[in-house]
Amino acid sequence: MEFGICFKGFMEPGRMKAVVRQAEDAGFTYCWFYDSHILWRESFVSMAMCMEHTENMKFGPCVTNPNTRDWSHAASLFGSLAKQSNGRFEIGVGRGDSAVRVMGKKPAPLARMEEFIHAVKALVRGEEVQYGECPAPVKFPWTEEYDLPAWVAAYGPKALSSAGRVGDGLILQIAEPTIVKWLADQAIKAGREAGRDMSDYKVMCAAPALTGELNDSIEKVKWFPAMVGNHVADIVERYGSDTDQVPSSLTSYIKNRKGYDYSKHGQSDNPYLDFITEDIVKSFCVLGTVEEHVEKLKVLEKSGMTQFNIYLDSGGEEKTIADYAEKIIPTFN
């Protein structure tokens, strides 16, 4: 199993460089970044900076989307970062959440997301691509035929199908083992039905992780289930609250949800956190003693998780990395 960290984009550059070096030395192999360019600083600038201060760690957006990233510019950016890092670049892709909703826009249709993935992967490989209204195929003369891995963020049945059919991995913003297994199984099934070899398919669980006193930790990460609730609300709106196409444990917790403030996206001072219970926080995140972290991560691994990606935005980031370095990551090596 692999371990990753994820920056939200508000950490000062000097500290970010130190944290990413600490994480690589600790055994973390991935460094992801939120890609919401209005709420936080431009993520790809920070990625390029952090690449220069690491040797082996892989980087990527978690997640980008086809509505705020023009396909040709995105592919050029991805190919450039792959070359600059000697192949240490991957992408997470979704329909778009805070990056578009904070502007009052809607997420992209799944067909557009799939088209985006196919196009940017092909361009980075050095192939010609006919896309949209361009009068002639486009091709980069400088690419080095890099095979760009693309992870797909998904919860709903159609998005999970996309993840299995076109993705190299699945991103799940949740650390609840039974839900993880259910969702991962759906994506893998879709990939197999499409004729793909899914034996090396990857499944990421992205969630906050804090070691220490439980009550204090719960208050610091209440923002996370509320953030997940945005995606679940979309599913309920489309399929209804009694659908059998997603686990009831995923849809039932938003019953009393009243709204969401995208200007406070992913922050503990978001005014719409009242529906989040202590049990939901403990279920969705990884909290408690080091031993409790190890126990839950082993259950998640059995449920199909291949990478645990820690959202570093709840305080005590250096301590979390140190605890994982000393007491948790060695357990999985």
Explain the overall architecture.
This protein is α/β, with parallel strands linked by helices and 333 residues long. The chain has one domain: TIM Barrel (Alpha-Beta Barrel), CATH 3.20.20.30. Helices cover 43% and strands 13% of the residues. It has 13 helices and ten strands. The strands form two sheets. An eight-stranded parallel β-sheet has the order 3-2-1-10-7-6-5-4, covered by helices on one side. It has a two-stranded parallel ribbon with strand order 8-9. Helix 7 packs parallel to helix 12. The protein is globular, with a radius of gyration of 19 Å.
Structural class: alpha/beta
**CATH topology label:** TIM Barrel
How many DSSP-defined strands? Answer: 10
Please work out how many helical segments DSSP would assign: 13
Helix content: 40-55%
Q: What is the first-to-last residue Cα distance?
A: 8 Å
Classified in CATH, the superfamily is: Luciferase-like domain
The major sheet is characterized as:
8 strands, parallel
SSE topology string = EHEHEHEHHEHEHEEHHHHEHEH
Question: What is the overall shape?
Answer: globular
Keywords, separated by commas or semicolons:
alpha/beta, TIM Barrel, eight-stranded parallel beta sheet, two-stranded parallel ribbon, 10 strands
Q: How does the SSE layout of this entry go?
A:
Blueprint: E1 2-7, H1 13-26, E2 30-33, H2 43-51, E3 58-61, H3 71-84, E4 91-93, H4 98-101, H5 110-125, E5 150-153, H6 157-166, E6 169-172, H7 177-193, E7 202-207, E8 209-211, H8 214-220, H9 223-239, H10 248-251, H11 278-284, E9 286-288, H12 290-302, E10 307-311, H13 317-328
Helix pairs in contact: 1-13, 3-5, 5-6, 6-7, 7-12, 12-13
